[in-house]
Specification:
Helix content of chain B: over 70%
Low-confidence stretches of chain A: 362-371, 494-507, 547-552
Largest sheet of chain A: 2 strands, antiparallel
Strand content of chain B: under 5%
Low-confidence stretches of chain B: 447-458
Chains: A mainly alpha (697), B mainly alpha (496), C mainly alpha (109), D mainly alpha (527), E mainly alpha (187)
Oligomer: heteropentamer
Number of domains of chain A: 3
Helix content of chain A: 55-70%
């Protein structure tokens, strides 16, 4: 596969400067706010940050349009639709193994740059009003811009090292942002939990990166995804019981990174707790950008994963499991932001599922060495869903922000009857809920159908069922969320004051401040239209660069069962909405209604299947008792003590010698004589002692 | 044969004769100077010794050295003699103040004439010992070097310890000299005659030591008697008691002069005629060195009496010096250089230590706790103490390190790597017990208010240094640093 | 009457001397046993002079006279030592009234 | 006399001698100051160290501008020295005052100079009347400052001397020169069980130097050319049996100084009891001397021995990395936490050395530099926090971010750097070491690499535990009274952070020069 | 015949030695020791070293014995009933003494016989007066002039030492050494 073509023609210089700007501007905003504005005049910090992010969005759009006109329109020049804006060698490891910093353009990265900068701009804008009375708002904007810089850096990276470089920075930025209200112990604990858990996954990811680099001789995606690299890795290591295929181990290790960052099933525990951070943070990080990084990485390494037999199946399985589990749990949550967090988890599961189903199962059935050629249906569907989901999920989070701002509490049980007080939020949240539920005209419908189509097309019926079930459940909990927030009578819950989002930020302004609503309205438009408009563009262009190696995409609709499946999905969605309306609208169930009455399954789901408790047990009982304590004890009692014991022995010997020296002359003479005889005896007895000090010549 | 009064006779004998005459003159000063007897005797002695030193340095000596009637003086022998003269000079300077009443808790020293006379007699003995060419002169020299020390140890009548130490030292010494007599008789038996060259001939003629029982018996017994004087391990039991009992000046002389004489004797004998390729004495010396290091370290670790501490540290230093004898074939020159340099360095460090001990010992019992707060009482003295201790340990910038490095180099030449490692470990352990002194010196005096304990027993009177004391301290400090860094002195000794 | 006999005799005397030194509690008696060991050595010298050096078998040029001359000097040296020792004994007597060696353990540890 | 590299005797070599002569001269000058004038003493010491920093910086720039060109005549196995000079010192033992610098030593000297400069700044309140609370009685009395700075300068002179000397004897002399000041500084000016810690530290280090002593003698006598010069000895092919026992002896000797696993027991107590500046110099620079010695003397002169033993030494290195981390998690005292984290990071250096390939060795050198800067910053911050809150126990403090924001931000940044966050020096070094470890052949090396990589998780745990425990959480009632960093302290911290960032973001030029310096060692290892 | 006499002489000497070492009465011990010395004198005559024998008598009997007796009487009092050492000490001393004896005996028997049995004719008189006299003062290479001088110094040193130790301390502190100190401090 050819190396990415460096844009060298003069025509591209404007694109290159824009490419530089996309990265430099957020960094500039971080530096300006962090060092100078942050402390002195906080209001200015908000506006400058938003202005700079606006500029970043403009540059991103310029880059996108430039890329479209120069690269997309000229397939002959750029067959794989990829190009490299600029590149700088950071560290050379010998041979062509080197760590490089580059701005890499391909359909996926262009789409993501636009999405991330757009949402980041809106969130910055939104935060000006939201963080108006907060202490340290300057620091907030600095960290938000730092996060955006890191995320953009991650997206545009052309090799694994740069990805890992910004991967860690993203993790650190999210740690700082989650723990923004550092005086709240819950926030501090949540931030530490998020960082340590992602760090745990990143360690395995780093191992994967290093193994790839060492065995394939390069870190670049193009080389790594090429057939040569896959062949290189395709050897078994270790013998007998421990024999393992290097390729599958490397790919699983690489997937571990995505697993932790996108909070797939076992590693999802940090995301719900991350809601302790301010809402704009959740809107940006835990809906549209960071959590999607995992999906983006898997997409980047799609051809490599496809080459390994079982990795994609693992991806699909974890995706499906998370999707269903998260959707189910979301139905039982009472915290506003936790519902949305679990909903994000569920949607991420769907995206991973889409990526995972790209290998047609029928081909396996054929027996014999079948070259399972992955088709790119799943790849396109996943990225399409990323695109649409970013908009309506951030919209939901921002609207939740407005709601929390109004009722001063995160708890669903305090919300109610807000329909009249905040009409704009009502409309935008309604649009987002419908989009999320996946009803026809809204964005969610098209991207979800693509995913299910890809699964159906490649014969993964179990995953199709999981997708449908998730769709239904999503519709149900979104309706529950919507009805309980906007309809019914206003309710106050006893414990609401305690965990209010703004600790002590009792301000009374308008329930629906204009500055916060504007982004909502802006976001409503794409959540409605983007699905319908973007569908064709995505199907045509959004292909992995090695598209020639994978089967051509036959249009999904052509598949026999497709129309039926669409009907079933829409029916399920409608039934979900119906039951939601019935239970919470008509029968007036309150949010916590089913807590004590509901079946045991409801209670288990409400406690998130006790995964948190399992982790804490593992860490406290197993980790500390069997690892940390013995290590600490051994350090003190064995290693350090060894020095003191040595001293003790010497002291005892010294005391013995001084007792022997009792001053008697006769004892001295006797010792002298016996000593002389002993020297003679030792010398002649050939005992090792004298020769021990003899020469080693 | 050269006529008695030709130049070789002069250059060979003159310094020794001068020393002898000086000893006699010192004895008679008591009669001449009725008043201020102590001071004048000391002055005469110092002047005399200076003359001897000048003679040693100035006398022309043919490179091959001069041989005369059982007396052989080569250039390296002259260096030995210079070392002895320096040690005696320093002892005399140190002992001057002890003749005044109230200068030490142990009571004043009696008749100075006898004291200095005996000291000089002992030095004459050392001179003879080093330039001996046959066993008889060697034996007489050894006796003359040791006998006066018994008397010197017992010279403080009012201090009970002195008599006890003297008699113990005498008993052990007599036994050792009997042992050396026995040894020499066997060597005479084996070699047929007393001359060193005959000894060397017979030693190298026979295939291996075990084939010559007499030679082996003689060698071992002589090693025993020299070991006693060196305070080597099996024979070191006397040292702590005698160092504690004897007057401070005598202890100083014991730990420097007498030890130097012992090392010189062992060198003339075991690196001279008896340095035989097949007599693998290296293993015995190595074993003795290790045991001495062990005994010295263990002894000094828990010692609170300053004098006994110095005794054990000198046993350990003897251990280091024994390493030079494990060099085996062809290492005589290197061993001599290493030993002479180390003795010079060890002597300087010891006298610096004794200088401090004597000043501290005026008002307080000579124990380690009495060093407390020395840095407060007189920073210069504390600095000198620190320098001398670091040199005794063997930490680089100071002279001790270079001395020990040379000794270890000789052992390494013959491949005794385990021995070097144990030696280096002993250096590490020595850091521990030497630092106990420094810790006391730099311990901030716990005045009542900040520790709550009663004010420390030792009265905190600042120590005033007389002018002579100041320049002596300065000289010692500079010497310790210069000897460590500048190669001048080492090249001088090596060129001899 | 051969070398072996003399050597054994001197060895025996040496052993008795050492035994005396180790068991005698009186200072003078101890000095006496010390003298015994010296006498043993002297016998050795003369024996070697007579049998060793004088005979031809030994390495050429054995020096018989050296042995007896050595005895001269050794006897003188021992006498000197004894003089000093006895002076110490007298001083000890004056100081401590008892000449018991085993009491001399004031300095120890 | 030395057939090896020709020495361009230039004036620069005098500058090189000045690097250790200057601190010694300033120590002597300080001795003349009267005790009471504490501020004058401090300023003089700062001036001397700043001058030293400038001097070393100039030398570094000179070096980077015109590095010594490697001469490939003898298979490129001899180290080319810049600013070299060779004067005979002790003719009896053929000891030469042979000095010179290559990329590794000049960068480590820069590290030492920066840490010395910021260390002097960080100990600005030492000796000031009523300065640092429970600090040793002697230090708080106004005459403490003089002895403190004199000893600090001597320690610095010893360290600089070590880095420039290429003669084993001179190297050993300078190495031992640092022993006395370290002991006295900790015993007189430390806190907590300072005498015990100082004695334990010195005894174990002297045990280590006993091994080095043995190795040096082995090299001197077994080489046949009776020379101490590293350049000449590097051309000698020692007998494999000799290398069989000499290499582990030398490597262990330097390992003990370099904080290798089983022998690290001196460093936690030593650092916890040492005053700030001393623990900065001790952890930041003195420990690097050990690893530098392993690389320059043990591996360069005894390559076959390295081949035989390196797999064996990989085990304590890796165990050290993991062990340091686990024990650090449980530590309550900040300084102990950082000391054990140093054990872990120094273990990484030895993992890098154990890989025996270019990337691994380069990673080890980078890690020496990175860890040097990072641990110095962390100790500085801990010292400053201690001066304010008079406690180093994590449970006793919380919510300091609000009262001392500057220090807290620096602490967070330093923590992140220690964590190995990309963008800081730690990441560049660890990346190289892990890559080298994975590239090294053999399952043992690979298993070691896996454990080493997993250590970044443990390091995250204990660092966050400390950072969150101290800075975040509800502020305690006495927090309001604390005063934030004074300008003097700010300069110290900012210089260190600047160094960490520069090394993290632009490692290119430094790495390029270090590779040239490593080439001779690698060619020797490959022979 | 000579051998029988020799063995008899040895037995006598050893007997006297044992008495000297074990008798409870110091006076009897000293006399026993004199017996041993006489034994050696006879042995020396047997071995042909007349001069040495004479020297032995002169110095030992004449000098040392008298000196010892003098000391014994001077320190009159408890010399009669000297305390008997404990049994354990005796056994320990026996062992310590036995070891060198066995070594030397073994050595003597093994190496001794290589030397010829004493023939009647002596190749050269080993201690004739004239030869010793010549050797003592001959300044040449094999002469012993230097030791001769040194031994006199040794005796002198011993004398000075003995006097220094044994002079009785005048109670009135009039020994000039001390008196002059006071004036000295005063000045």
């Amino acid at each position: 596969m050819d190396n990415p073509v460096l844009l060298t023609q003069e025509a591209w210089s404007s694109l290159q400067t824009a490419a530089w700007a996309v990265l430099i501007l957020p960094l500039l905003s971080f530096l300006v706010n962090g060092l100078w504005l942050g402390r002195k005049h906080e209001r200015a910090a908000g506006w400058t940050a938003t202005a700079l992010l606006g500029a970043t969005l403009a540059c991103a759009l310029h880059v996108a349009s430039g890329w479209r006109s120069l690269v997309l329109q000229h397939p002959e020049l750029y067959p794989s639709r990829t190009a490299l804006a600029w590149e700088h060698v950071w560290l050379n490891f010998g041979g062509n193994l080197s760590a490089r910093l580059g701005f890499y353009l391909d359909p996926a990265s262009v789409m993501m740059i636009v999405v991330v900068s757009a949402i980041s701009f809106l969130v910055h804008f939104y935060s000006i009003r939201y963080m108006k009375h907060e202490r340290g708002a300057g620091r907030f904007f600095a960290l938000l811009s730092l996060f955006t810089f890191a995320m953009l850096g991650l997206i545009v990276s052309g090799n694994l090292i740069q990805t890992f470089f910004f991967w860690e920075l993203v993790g650190a930025a999210s740690y700082l942002l989650i723990g923004f209200w550092y005086t709240k112990p819950a926030a501090v604990a949540a931030s530490k939990k998020a960082f340590v858990l992602t760090r745990f996954a990143d360690a395995f990811f780093l191992m994967g990166v290093l193994l790839t680099g060492v065995n394939t001789g390069s870190f670049d995606f193009l080389v790594v995804n090429g057939p040569a690299a896959a062949a290189e890795l395709n050897r078994t290591l270790g013998a007998g019981l421990f024999a393992f295929k290097l390729l599958s181990v490397t790919t699983v290790l690489l997937y571990m990174g995505a697993w932790g960052k996108s909070a797939m099933f076992p590693f999802h525990v940090w995301l719900p707790d991350a809601m302790e951070g301010p809402t704009p943070v959740s809107a940006l990080i835990h809906s549209a950008t960071m959590v999607v990084a995992g999906v983006y990485l898997t997409a980047r390494l799609f051809p490599l994963f496809a080459a390994a037999e079982h990795t994609l199946q693992l991806v699909a399985f974890t995706g499906a499991l998370t999707a269903v589990f998260a959707a189910a749990v979301a139905c039982t949550q009472t915290d506003l932001k936790r519902i949305l967090a679990f909903s994000t988890l569920s949607q991420l599961g769907l995206m991973m599922l889409a990526l995972g189903v790209s290998i047609p199962t029928v081909a396996n059935g054929g027996g014999g060495a079948v070259t399972t050629i992955a088709n790119t249906a799943g790849y396109t569907a996943a990225l399409f869903h990323v695109f649409t989901h970013a908009f309506f999920k951030s919209l939901l989070f921002l609207s939740a922000g407005v709601i929390i701002h109004a009722i001063h509490s995160n708890d669903l049980r305090d919300a109610g009857g807000l329909r009249k007080k905040m009409p704009w939020t009502y409309i935008s949240t309604l649009a987002a809920c419908l989009a999320l539920a996946g009803l026809w005209p809204f964005a969610g419908f098209f991207s979800k159908e693509e995913i299910l189509g890809a699964a159906l097309g490649n014969g993964h019926f179990t995953f199709v069922a999981a997708g449908l079930l998730t769709g239904g459940l999503t519709a149900f909990y979104m309706t529950r969320y919507f009805v309980l927030v906007f309809h019914g009578s206003a309710r106050t819950h006893a414990s609401s004051a305690m965990n209010a989002d703004h600790a002590g930020a009792a301000h009374h302004g308008p329930t629906e401040p204009l500055l916060m609503v504007l982004p909502l309205i802006v976001l409503t438009v794409p959540s409605v239209l983007v699905g319908w408009l973007g569908r064709n563009a995505f199907l045509k262009d959004m292909l992995p660069w090695t598209s020639s190696a994978t089967a051509p995409v036959e249009h999904l609709e052509a598949h026999a069962g497709f129309p039926w499946m669409v009907l079933v999905a829409t029916a399920l969605a409608l039934s979900g909405i119906g039951t939601g309306l019935y239970l919470y609208g008509r029968k007036r169930w309150t949010a916590g209604y089913a807590d004590d009455r509901g079946p045991w399954l409801y209670r288990i789901l409400r406690d998130k299947l006790y995964v948190d408790e399992v982790y804490s047990f593992l860490i406290r009982k197993v980790g500390s008792r069997f690892v940390i304590t013995p290590a600490d004890w051994a350090e003190r009692k064995i290693l350090n003590a060894s020095f003191d014991q040595g001293g003790g022995v010497l002291n005892k010997l010294a005391r013995g010698l001084s007792r022997y020296q009792n001053g008697q002359v006769q004892r001295s003479v006797a010792t002298a004589l016996l000593g002389l005889v002993l020297l003679l005896a030792l010398y002649f007895s050939g005992s090792p002692l004298p020769h021990l000090f003899g020469s080693l010549k | 044969m050269s006529t008695p009064f030709s130049t070789p006779f002069l250059s060979a004998f003159l310094p020794d004769l001068a020393l002898l005459v000086l000893a006699l003159v010192v004895l008679t000063t008591e009669i001449v100077f009725r008043k201020h007897q102590a001071r004048w005797t000391a002055r005469v002695a110092v002047a005399g010794l200076a003359a001897v030193l000048i003679l040693l340095a100035a006398l022309p000596l043919p490179s091959g050295g001069v041989a005369y009637a059982g007396y052989q003086v080569t250039r390296s022998v002259v260096v030995w003699k210079q070392l002895f003269a320096l040690a005696t000079l320093a002892t005399i300077l140190l002992s001057r103040s002890y003749f005044r009443n109230g200068h030490s808790l142990r009571g004043a020293l009696a008749n100075p004439g006898a004291f200095y006379g005996l000291l000089l007699f002992s030095t004459t003995g050392m001179f003879a010992l080093v330039s001996a060419r046959d066993l008889l002169t060697f034996y007489i020299g050894l006796e003359l070097a040791t006998l006066p020390l018994y008397a010197l140890t017992a010279l403080q009548p009012r201090n009970a310890g002195s008599i006890e130490a003297g008699s113990k030292y005498m008993l052990m010494g007599a036994f050792a000299s009997a042992l050396s007599l026995f040894g020499i008789s066997f060597l005479y038996g084996a070699a047929g005659s007393l001359g060193f060259d005959a000894l060397a001939k017979v030693a190298s003629a026979q295939p291996s030591l075990s084939a010559q029982p007499f030679l082996l018996a003689g060698v071992l017994m002589l090693l025993g008697s020299l070991g006693f004087k060196l305070a080597m391990v099996p024979f070191q039991m006397w040292a702590p008691d005698v160092y504690e009992g004897a007057p401070t000046a005598v202890t100083a002389f014991l730990s420097t002069g007498s030890k130097a004489a012992a090392v010189a004797a062992t060198t003339t004998l075991f690196l001279g005629p008896l340095n035989l390729p097949r007599i693998d004495l290296g293993a015995i010396f190595a074993l003795a060195a290790v045991l001495s290091l062990l005994a010295g370290t263990l002894g000094a670790m828990r010692q609170s009496n300053l004098r006994r501490f110095i005794a054990y540290s000198s046993i350990a230093q003897a251990g280091y010096m024994l390493m030079a004898f494990t060099g085996g074939e062809g290492s005589e020159a290197a061993a001599r250089i290493a030993l002479q340099y180390n003795l010079l360095v060890y002597g300087t460090a010891s006298f610096a230590l004794f200088f401090v001990v004597s000043l501290v010992g005026r008002s307080a019992p000579e124990t380690i706790p009495s060093l407390r707060g020395l840095s407060a009482r007189s920073p210069a003295l504390a600095a000198l103490l620190a320098l001398s201790l670091f040199s005794l340990i063997g930490i680089p910038p100071l002279a001790g390190f270079l001395g020990k490095f040379l000794l270890f180099a000789v052992a390494a030449r013959n491949g005794h790597y385990t021995l070097i490692f144990i030696g280096a470990l002993a250096v590490a352990l020595s850091f521990y017990y030497y630092m106990r002194l420094l810790k006391e010196a730099y311990q901030p005096v716990q005045t009542a208010e900040n520790r709550g304990a009663p004010a420390s027993a030792v009265p905190l009177s600042p120590i005033r240094l007389s002018l002579a004391g100041k320049c002596a301290a300065a000289l010692l400090a500079i010497l310790l640093v210069v000897l460590g860094t500048c190669p001048g002195m080492l090249n001088f000794i090596a060129s001899r | 009457m051969n070398l072996a006999g003399c050597l054994v005799l001197s060895g025996a005397l040496f052993a008795v001397g050492v035994f005396g030194l180790l068991t005698r509690r009186n200072m003078i008696a101890a000095l006496l046993s010390l003298e015994l060991t010296v006498v043993a050595a002297l016998i050795n010298f003369v024996a070697f002079a007579r049998f060793g050096a004088a005979s031809a078998t030994n390495v050429a040029g054995g020096d018989a006279h050296a042995g007896s001359i050595f005895v001269f000097f050794a006897v003188a040296a021992t006498a000197a030592e004894m003089a000093l020792a006895l002076a110490l004994v007298i001083a000890l007597r004056r100081r401590r009234q008892s000449l018991d060696i085993t009491d001399l353990d004031g300095l120890h540890g | 006399m030395t057939p090896v590299s020709t020495f361009a005797y230039s004036a620069a070599s005098n500058l090189l001698t000045l690097t250790w002569a200057l601190p010694l001269a300033s120590a002597a000058a300080l001795a003349l100051f009267p005790r009471q004038r504490v501020s004058a003493i401090r300023r003089f010491a700062l001036a001397a160290n700043t001058l030293n920093l400038i001097l070393v910086a100039v030398l570094t720039v000179l070096f980077f501008k015109s590095p010594p060109v490697p001469n490939t005549s003898s298979g490129g196995t001899e180290t080319m020295l810049a600013f070299a000079a060779d004067h005979e010192w002790l003719s009896v033992l053929n000891v030469h005052y042979l000095i010179g610098v290559d990329a590794i030593s000049i960068t480590l000297m820069l590290l030492a100079a920066v840490i010395l400069f910021s260390g002097t700044l960080a100990s600005w309140t030492i000796g000031a009347p009523g300065g640092t609370g429970k600090v040793a009685a002697l230090a708080s009395s106004e005459n403490g400052a003089k002895e403190f700075f004199i000893l600090l300068q001597i320690l610095a002179a010893g360290v600089f001397g070590c880095f420039i000397s290429f003669d084993l004897f001179t190297f050993f002399v300078f190495n031992e020169l640092t022993l006395i000041p370290t002991y006295l500084l900790i015993a007189l000016f430390g806190s907590g069980r300072r005498e015990y810690a100082a004695m334990k530290l010195t005894l174990i280090l002297m045990g280590g130097s006993a091994l080095i002593f043995l190795g040096i003698f082995g090299l001197y006598f077994e080489s046949g050319i009776h020379s101490f010069s590293i350049l000449e000895l590097s051309q000698v092919r020692f007998h494999p049996d000799f290398q069989g026992w000499a290499f582990p002896v030398l490597f262990l000797g330097f390992g003990i100084l370099g904080n290798m696993f089983p022998f690290h027991i001196w460093s936690p107590d030593g650092h916890a009891s040492a005053p700030t500046a001393v623990s900065m110099l001790l952890a930041g620079v003195h420990m690097k001397l050990g690893a530098y010695g392993c690389l320059r003397i043990a591996m360069y002169l005894l390559p076959e021995g390295a081949g035989m033993w390196m797999n064996v030494f990989l085990i304590p290195a890796v165990v050290g990395v993991v062990w340091g981390g686990f024990v650090a998690v449980r530590q309550k005292d900040l300084k102990y936490m950082n000391a054990y984290s140093s054990v872990s990071h120094c273990g990484l250096v030895f993992v890098g050395l154990a890989t025996l390939n270019l990337i691994g060795l380069r990673g080890a050198v980078l890690q020496m530099l990175a860890h040097g800067f990072i641990t110095a910053t962390v100790f500085a911050v801990i010292g400053m926090i201690y001066q304010r809150t008079h406690t180093r126990r994590i449970p006793d403090m919380s919510g300091l971010m609000r009262s001392i924001p500057f220090l807290s931000v620096v602490f967070v940044i330093a923590g992140m750097a220690a964590l190995g966050l990309p963008g800081f020096a730690g990441f560049a070094a660890e990346l190289n070491i892990f890559l080298g470890a994975f590239a090294a052949a053999g399952t043992l090396a690979r298993m070691g690499a896996v454990l080493a990589v997993l250590s970044i998780i443990v390091s995250a745990i204990y660092i966050l535990r400390a950072v969150n425990g101290v800075l975040h959480g509800p502020p305690k009632e006495n927090a309001a009274v604390l005063s934030d960093a004074v300008p003097v302290e700010k300069i110290a911290l900012l210089t260190l952070l600047a160094a960490i960032l520069v090394l993290g973001l632009w490692p290119g030029p430094v790495v390029h020069r270090i590779d040239d310096a490593l080439m001779p060692i690698l060619n020797n290892l490959k022979r | 015949m000579r051998d029988v006499l020799f063995y008899l002489l040895c037995a006598v000497m050893l007997g006297f030695a044992v008495i000297a070492v074990t008798s409870r009465n110091l006076f009897r011990a000293v006399l026993a020791f004199a017996g041993v010395i006489l034994g050696t004198v006879i042995l020396f005559f047997a071995l042909g070293a007349e001069m040495t024998a004479l020297a032995q008598i002169l110095v030992y009997i004449g000098g040392v014995m008298i000196f010892v007796l003098y000391a014994v009487f001077l320190t009159s009092g408890e010399e009669v009933g000297m305390p008997k050492p404990s049994v354990a000490k005796i056994i320990f001393a026996l062992i310590v003494a036995a070891i060198p004896l066995s070594l030397i005996a073994g050595l003597a028997l093994r190496a001794g016989c290589t030397f010829p049995v004493a023939g009647e004719a002596l190749q050269s008189p080993i201690a004739s007066l004239e030869s010793i006299g010549l050797r003592l003062l001959n300044p040449g290479a094999d002469g012993f002039l230097v030791p001769f001088e040194l031994i006199s110094v040794l005796l002198l040193a011993a004398m000075v030492g003995a006097i220094a130790i044994a002079t009785r301390e005048k109670e009135a502190e009039t020994a000039d050494g001390i008196l002059t100190e006071k004036q000295e401090d005063a000045s």
